């Protein structure tokens, strides 16, 4: 059975997926099967966009989905690993520990032990939504967003919320819980081959500053 | 940039550099940006270059006045509702204007919507493949100010004028509906909306009943997508808008009507009309053909 699809405007088709693994497989399959389109991701959606209206775009997406039906999970995806050094001294670290019912040290250890995957990008250039993959020492989904967002979260803030983690690439408003900070530059237009450090599908590991992996 | 100075900016308000934007960068999470009214942009560049590129820069004027002083022989074109003064006398929009050294070109925005000023030979440095100014991500391009230099290799290309078209504010936007139902959906789809604020990142709509879903999982967005908050506020995403969002989406404005969104001003009332993709693609192709036909070459007013 192939996933559901629908139009978003006249230049884009949305493919609904069940989970992160299916999303990565569908995105990779569509990117290779459909030239001259852009493939973007949501948490549970893949978006295929053309530069101008094409009334056959949805048919082409459905055909491509049929062509790879049944082999979604077997396809290889970009699993490059990005390591980010963190100083775990965020303003919300103690609050996060309290909500999760553990110590601050437990939160820090669990955040480092967790393997994360870039589910999607785009809140701001360089902002990657990181979802946990594999086993988790803590249930990150217990954490909602902060009840009132901060008007200015400092650049480099490492945060968790809504079952995900993220690094703020620049100073910007934000409602996630801050558990640490990094000096890692997340977005730089001068790095012409890869302005955004995080690409969808990448795996991410956090390490404590100065301790390596 | 080592190219000679074509013109200097003597005065500017709310004037940014825009081209067709960075569509390819959307996959790395960077908004498309680029000209808000793409038809006017396309006409302006076509009037100063026989074969404009997607990176051909223009000045997008959203309000106020820009004053340029020519530093080399070149040609300019102004497209959109504006008062134009060249060498102290009125000059037309929608026409190629010859500029001599020290000629002063004044463009006063009248609206509705953005006004474009193109200059023959002008080039700008590109960031992620585009000269456009992303006002929300603060990436690329520049907000022009007095003293700025516009550089390039000017030439007199004599590319003509075009039949003027009306720039009336729209009262209706055609939309491809997205699936999803909520208590207020019928009223959102068929009722009228008030335009409350406008910006390149998004146009906000009010006056509709509440009833949207809360914040859901973040989803990919496109320019023209219409999000509705639980309070019943609508947001039509613009070229500098975010690429992801978590509010309910009731549909997206068709490509042929996207330029119309840039014409809206606070206080306008707007209704949505559902069309299908076949119709949307047809009217887009038709509008593109009409645009190409409207250019008349060669004809220069000096």
Describe the protein's architecture and organization.
The complex is a heterodimer of chains A (213) and B (302). Chain A has four helices and 13 strands. Chain A has helices at 20-33, 57-67, 93-100, 104-113, and strands at 5-8, 12-16, 38-41, 45-49, 81-86, 115-121, 128-133, 150-153, 157-161, 164-167, 172-174, 177-181, 203-208. In chain A, the strands form four sheets. A four-stranded antiparallel β-sheet of chain A has the order 1-2-4-3, with helices on one face. A four-stranded mixed β-sheet of chain A has the order 5-13-6-7. Chain A has a three-stranded antiparallel β-sheet with strand order 10-9-12. In chain A, strand 3 (38-41) and strand 4 form a beta hairpin. Chain A is elongated, with a radius of gyration of 18 Å. Chain A starts with a strand and ends in a 5-residue tail after the last strand. Chain B is elongated, with a radius of gyration of 20 Å. Chain B has a seven-stranded mixed beta barrel. Chain B contains four helices and 23 strands. Chain B folds into two domains: 5-163, no CATH class; 172-289, Cyclophilin-like (Cyclophilin), CATH 2.40.100. The A-B interface holds A 6-12, 14, 38-47, 49, 51-55, 57-58, 120-129, 189, 195-196, 199 and B 23-31, 127-128, 137, 139-140, 176, 178-179, 217-222, 224-225, 242-244, 249, 251-256, 277-278, 280-281, 284-285.
The succession of helices and strands of chain A, N to C, reads: EEHEEHEHHEEEEEEEE
Oligomer: heterodimer
Query: How far is the first residue's CA from the last residue's CA of chain A?
Result: 41 Å
CATH topology of the largest domain in chain A: Cyclophilin
Total helical elements of chain B? 4
> How many β-strands of chain B, per DSSP?
23
Supply the CATH class of the largest domain in chain A.
Mainly Beta
Summarize the amount of helix of chain B as a percent range. 10-25%
User: How many strand units of chain A?
Assistant: 13
Taken from the alpha-carbon principal axes, the silhouette of chain B is: elongated
Distance between the termini of chain B: 29 Å
Largest sheet of chain A: 4 strands, antiparallel
Low-confidence stretches of chain A: none
**Helicity level of chain A:** 10-25%
Order of helical and strand elements of chain B: EEHEEEEEEEEEEEHEEEEEEEHEHEE
Please, how many domains of chain B?
2
């Amino acid at each position: 059975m192939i996933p559901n699809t629908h139009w978003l405007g006249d230049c884009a088709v949305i493919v609904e997926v069940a989970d992160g693994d299916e999303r990565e497989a569908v995105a990779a399959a569509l990117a290779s099967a459909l030239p001259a389109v852009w493939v973007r991701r949501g948490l549970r959606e893949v978006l295929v966009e053309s530069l101008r209206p094409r009334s056959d775009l949805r048919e082409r997406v459905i055909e491509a989905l049929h062509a790879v039906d049944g082999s979604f999970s077997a396809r290889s995806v970009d699993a490059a690993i990005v390591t980010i050094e963190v100083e775990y001294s965020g303003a919300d670290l103690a609050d996060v520990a309290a909500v999760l019912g553990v110590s601050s040290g437990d939160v820090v250890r669990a955040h480092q032990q967790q393997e994360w995957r870039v589910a999607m990008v785009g809140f701001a250039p360089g902002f990657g939504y990181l979802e946990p993959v594999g086993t988790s020492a803590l249930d990150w989904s217990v954490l909602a967003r902060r009840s009132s967002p901060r008007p200015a979260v400092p650049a480099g803030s490492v945060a968790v919320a809504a079952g995900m983690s993220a690094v703020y690439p620049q100073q910007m408003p934000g409602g996630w819980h801050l558990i640490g900070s990094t000096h890692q530059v997340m977005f730089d237009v001068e790095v012409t081959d890869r302005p955004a450090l995080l690409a969808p599908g990448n795996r991410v590991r956090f390490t404590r500053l100065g301790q390596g992996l | 940039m080592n190219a000679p100075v074509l013109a200097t900016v003597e005065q500017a308000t709310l004037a940014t550099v825009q081209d067709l934007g960075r569509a390819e960068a959307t996959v790395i999470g960077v908004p498309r940006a680029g000209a808000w009214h793409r038809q006017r942009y396309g006409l302006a560049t076509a009037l100063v270059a026989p074969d404009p590129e997607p990176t051909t820069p223009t000045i997008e004027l959203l309000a106020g006045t820009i004053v340029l002083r020519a530093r080399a022989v070149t040609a300019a074109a102004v497209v959109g509702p504006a008062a134009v003064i060249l060498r102290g006398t009125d000059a037309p929009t929608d026409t190629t204007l010859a500029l001599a050294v020290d000629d002063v070109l004044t463009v006063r925005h009248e609206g509705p919507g953005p006004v474009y000023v193109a200059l023959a030979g002008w080039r700008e440095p590109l960031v992620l493949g585009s000269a456009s100014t992303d006002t929300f991500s603060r990436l690329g391009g520049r907000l022009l100010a007095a003293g700025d230099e516009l550089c390039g290799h000017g030439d007199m290309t004599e590319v003509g004028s075009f039949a003027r078209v009306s720039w009336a504010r729209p009262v209706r936007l055609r939309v491809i509906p997205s699936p999803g139902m909520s208590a207020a959906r019928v009223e959102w789809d068929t009722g009228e909306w008030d335009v409350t604020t406008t910006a390149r990142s998004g146009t906000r709509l009010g006056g509709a009943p509440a009833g949207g879903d809360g914040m859901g999982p973040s989803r990919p967005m496109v320019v023209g997508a219409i999000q509705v908050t639980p309070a019943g506020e609508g947001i039509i995403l613009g070229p500098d808008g975010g690429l992801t969002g978590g509010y309910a989406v009731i549909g997206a404005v068709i490509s042929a009507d996207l330029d119309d969104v840039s014409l809206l001003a606070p206080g306008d009332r707007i209704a949505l009309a559902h069309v299908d993709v076949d119709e949307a693609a047809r009217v887009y192709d038709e509008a593109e053909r009409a645009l190409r036909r409207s250019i008349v070459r060669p004809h220069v007013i000096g």
